[in-house]
């Protein structure tokens, strides 16, 4: 499993965006091409204009997850250790399903600006229980703007 984290270390995702972690379930991200995205894949902005399909493989239907998609490379002020821009936030995703079965708190946002290189980071958090995350999109966006 440590080998699966190597691209995240090389790509500076671990330490700059998230701390080291242990993999517990598999997550698959698929954009328009119907081909799973792997760590380090590069896409033109035009290829990521529609929200990707995200599948959770592992756990069970009684285990719930939260998906956070962020862009740590968006230009602008940010707090130390804070996500720079949320591109998507989905809670209450049952294990062994896809994100469409969860509660979309922040809808998918296209990458901005659409030039330069950006690392899109998809992080899946295991929830202690269903509806454990209670955040409104306005609170999240305000916190990001204030940062």
From TrEMBL:
| Highest taxon, organism lineage | Eukaryota
Q: Which InterPro entries match?
A: PEBP (IPR008914), PEBP-like_sf (IPR036610), PEBP_euk (IPR035810), Phosphatidylethanolamine-bd_CS (IPR001858)
Pfam families hit by this protein: PBP
| PANTHER family hit by this protein | PHOSPHATIDYLETHANOLAMINE-BINDING PROTEIN (PTHR11362), PROTEIN TERMINAL FLOWER 1 (PTHR11362:SF13)
**Family listed:** Belongs to the phosphatidylethanolamine-binding protein family.
Q: What is this protein called?
A: Protein SELF-PRUNING
Where does this protein come from, organism-wise? Acorus gramineus (Dwarf sweet flag)
